[in-house]
Design brief:
- The protein is of the alpha/beta class and 209 residues long.
- The chain is 37% helix and 22% strand.
- It has a seven-stranded mixed beta sheet with strand order 3-2-1-4-5-7-6, with helices on both faces.
- The mean pLDDT is 92.
């Protein structure tokens, strides 16, 4: 049974490069809060692979039920309503996995992440990625592997570039500890490392105050 859980957890986190990157960043036996945790699969993987003490926040009722079924503690809550239920420094890491661009006030969410947790981990979709830029240049909102939905059917309301995210962190006096640019199809070629704002489709940041 334990080996089945480990296998399922590894299969899930390695299905997305940003998830496997986050997993590699997180040490064992820490406290993790995942904002917009979905069905709880990442938190379950953190429980199984890292021995983490986890908590999720999710708005969608059916996904909350899936979390509970997986044995993942979860609070049903809209992130836009605030996170005052959580005490200062009550977690070691607060995760925001491709949820940053879906909230009404991303700047406020960053501040709250770093009030609640010692460090934040943000997986960020980069609208400055070259495939997206070409589609915008031809007058269309982009559709890519990381932005698979049409403009009228997406939850993304605050798309930005990696440069935008860096500037936001500077403006909020947030320190970027680690920045790992990622390209589609699980590759990190040299051009992605040199010019992430152009060649990275997503980027994972570790941040702290």
């Amino acid at each position: 049974m334990r080996s089945d859980l480990i296998k399922a957890s590894e299969e899930y986190i390695y299905s997305r490069r940003d998830l496997s990157t986050m997993t590699e960043m997180i040490p064992e036996n820490v406290r993790i809060l995942d904002l917009g945790c979905g069905t709880g699969r990442l938190l379950k993987a953190m429980q199984v692979l890292k021995g983490a003490r986890v908590m999720g926040v999710e708005m969608n009722e059916s996904k909350v039920i899936e979390c509970i079924g997986r044995g993942v503690p979860v609070i049903q809550k809209n992130l836009d309503d605030g996170l005052s239920d959580f005490k200062d420094n009550s977690f070691d890491f607060v995760i925001l996995s491709q949820t940053f661009q879906t909230v009404k006030r991303p700047d406020v969410i960053l501040d709250e992440m770093l009030r609640i947790g010692k460090r934040g981990i943000v997986s960020f979709i980069n609208i400055g990625y070259w495939r997206a830029r070409i589609q915008i240049a031809f007058g269309n909102m982009p559709v890519t592997r990381t932005l698979p939905m049409q403009w009228y059917d997406t939850t993304n309301i605050h798309l930005g570039t990696i440069s935008d995210f860096r500037k936001l962190c500077r403006d909020r006096n947030i320190r970027i500890v680690t920045e790992i640019p990622l390209q589609e199809r699980n590759r990190i070629p040299w051009r992605c490392r040199l010019w992430p704002n152009l060649f990275a489709s997503t980027c994972v940041f570790i941040i702290e105050k």
